[in-house]
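During the reporting period the student researcher (J.K.) took over the structure-prediction task from the postdoctoral fellow and processed the backlog of single-chain submissions. One of the processed entries is reproduced below for the supervisory committee.
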Amino acid sequence: GEWDKFMNEQLAYFLQRLDSHKEGDGTLLDRTMVLHGSSNSTTHNNSNYPLVFAGGSGIGLQHGQFLKVADNVPMSNLFVTMLDCMGVDAPKFADSTGDLTAVRA
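J.K. obtained the following structure tokens:
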């Protein structure tokens, strides 16, 4: 309800601020990855909640899409991809099974 609305407004404000700062041939948002998720305090279940993954177009990420990732793909695959975009050689992270290629440009 109200808390989610507030948090999403803050996220939008943060992303707008990043996008308003010029950095090289793009903006700070182009060189930043922002991952925002929600939760459920009633059941503390962590499955199948929507995520917002923004920024990073200057470091090889593609946005402007809706992805439905298979249930058996761990979220840590996204973390492996994020680390790789930052130049960190980490082919495995936690329970990852590979790279999440769908977010790459």
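The committee noted the following: The radius of gyration is 15 Å.
J.K. will present the remaining backlog at the next meeting.
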